[in-house]
Design goal:
By secondary structure, the protein is of the alpha/beta class. It contains 16 helices and 19 strands. Helix content is 29%, strand content 18%.
Length: 551
């Protein structure tokens, strides 16, 4: 058999030679490295938007990159250097420089400017190629997360040949690197603009659509980095990413929330480790339980609508499930449930893996339907857990929380209010006061997926968080222990406890409406005066805690 490198094109051999081959060894700092070497490192340094923004800034500021022919701006000819690769996602401290060096003179047309792109815009397409290659971790900028993985059921763009992929690229986080990548719709729109192809319709309301020149590019990137710098969690040292979602916010109904307390897996089901949850027999039983639980929730909705009147879609705005309750292979059930109810979902994942090393992790998933022009797409991103219990360590689960997700709901209605923001954590992470300090001025609702035995302690924690964070606090606990609760810092005692499911081994579905104006962006509960509903002499919420800055 003839070795591959004896017949492969020379540029492919050079690309293969410059891939990272040092295993899990750290990248050298303060040294120029080919961009290809960095993006193929298993640490996936460019899996977050903040790091990609720093790369975009470095490309825009480099004089050698500016003077280089766009067709030769490849991950091999572009070199990067950093003082600390681990800090790339911190906009306040990250350092990254870029330069162009002609180490490869041709790529046999792979990186040439397409015929539909104007010559004066060739630099934009070149920047888009580099940024997308960094985001995917592959030198082929048309590659996608699922290119070699079978996952049928919804549209993912054109596959097959490189030419077809170039015409059907999708730039969402799930398409670039999967649900563990922190890449917001803002950056996806930037790639859409830089790599636009014939017939594609851009949303002119997006900031990236204003980019016409290199100076425009630099200004847009700098402005975005500043936004991300202000969002960065100073106490928890976590990047915070907002995912804006157009949502039919209804101030008359409020935000309709359902908390679903299931029974599987039970605590004893972990006796044989995580592998015991995937064995034949148990796996089918768990999937059937999940399907039955979703069916029960829809029946609960039907019974509720029978008495209170038929609700309009979305029948639920948010549905929260416990920690480790939904298997990663049951995403088809969750998408079908979301389609049926119109709801966004937050649920604990069973079987999640660290994207860098394949180790088991504990994560929850935001599954948010985004509807525009009669079509539905998904915002799908995972929220990790860092603070683990001794039982989790015994199971081999590793800490993984590289970022914090905030879902930002806004309405296209002319009468729409300011965006309403939700964020979430997994069980023990909710006890992290540094995280609560960073989020209290950012979010309006804090949801927690839990599998917690000590219900009484968590009840006390929620009572404290609802006041210190001054917002609605929701915990969906596993039914074996009960204690799923929703609370808010209203002044009157009977209003503070919105929902609480007591008792062990209890299946429970709780549905309630959250008034958006009380602790949302308007923060009417904190101040007396005329509200949208009525004139009040006294505030309906407790006196706000010291340092609250959401007014």
């Amino acid at each position: 058999m003839v070795p591959m490198f004896e017949w492969a094109p020379k540029y492919l051999i050079r690309f293969e030679d410059k891939r990272w081959s040092g295993g899990t060894e750290p990248l050298p700092t303060k040294k120029w490295l080919p961009l290809l070497t960095v993006i193929t490192h298993p640490a996936q340094f460019f899996s977050q938007e903040n790091a990609l923004l720093k790369l975009a800034e470095a490309l825009g500021q480099s004089r050698t990159v500016r003077a280089f022919a766009p067709e030769l701006l490849t991950p091999l000819n572009v070199q990067v250097r950093s003082d600390n690769w681990e800090q790339l996602s911190n906009p306040g401290t990250a350092t990254l420089s870029a330069q162009a060096v002609e180490s490869l003179k041709t790529t046999d047309g792979t990186y040439e400017t397409p015929s539909w792109c104007r010559p004066e815009d060739a630099w934009m397409y070149a920047f888009g190629r580099l940024l997308r290659a960094a985001a995917t971790g592959e030198p082929d900028f048309t590659a996608r997360h699922w290119l070699t993985r079978e996952d049928v059921g919804w549209y993912r763009g054109l596959t097959s040949t490189w030419q077809k992929r170039r015409m059907g690229m999708i730039h969402s986080a799930e398409g670039l690197r999967g649900t563990t990548a922190a890449i917001t719709p803002w950056f996806s729109d930037l790639l859409l603009h830089l790599l636009r192809w014939p017939g594609i319709a851009e949303r002119q309301s997006q900031e990236s659509s204003t980019i016409k020149t290199r100076r425009d590019f630099d200004n847009v990137i700098k402005k975005r980095i500043e936004v991300q710098r202000k969002l960065y969690g100073a106490s928890s040292q976590l990047p915070v990413y907002r995912y804006p979602v157009e949502w039919p916010l209804d101030s008359a109904r409020g935000l309709r929330v359902a908390m679903v307390q299931g029974l599987m897996p039970l605590h004893q089901h972990f006796d044989h480790g995580l592998a015991g949850l995937d064995v034949f027999g148990y796996r089918e039983k768990h999937r059937n339980h999940t399907a039955a639980l979703l069916h029960l929730t829809q029946k609960h909705l039907a019974a509720r609508d029978y008495v209170l009147g038929t609700s309009t879609k979305p029948h639920f705005d948010l549905v929260v499930f416990p920690e480790l309750s939904i298997h990663v292979d049951d995403q088809d059930l969750m998408r079908a449930f979301s389609d049926a109810t119109g709801a966004m979902l937050f649920y604990g994942l069973l079987g999640a893996k660290d994207p860098t090393n394949g180790e088991p992790i504990n994560a929850a998933r935001w599954l948010v339907p985004q509807r525009r022009a009669g079509r539905r797409s998904w915002v799908e991103v995972d929220q990790g857990k860092f603070n683990l219990t001794p039982e989790e360590h015994d199971l081999g689960i590793k800490p993984w929380r590289p970022y914090q997700v905030v879902i930002e709901l806004f309405s296209s209605s002319a009468l729409a209010s300011l965006p309403y923001r939700l964020t979430g954590s997994i069980c023990f992470d909710a006890t992290d006061l540094s995280l609560a300090a960073d989020l209290r001025n950012e979010s309006h609702m804090y949801v927690v997926s839990a599998m917690n035995k000590d219900v009484k302690t968590f009840d006390g924690m929620v009572a404290a968080l609802r006041y210190h964070m001054y917002q609605h606090i929701l915990i969906a606990n596993i039914g074996e222990f009960g204690g799923s609760t929703a609370q808010a810092p209203y002044d009157k005692e009977h209003q503070r406890l919105i929902s609480h499911s007591h008792g062990g081994n209890q299946l429970a579905v709780s549905v309630f409406d959250v008034r958006l104006e009380d602790f949302g962006p308007e923060l009417e509960a904190a101040q007396p005066g005329v509200t949208k509903w009525k004139k009040v002499k006294e505030r309906i919420g407790k006196a706000p805690p010291a340092g609250l800055d959401r007014f």
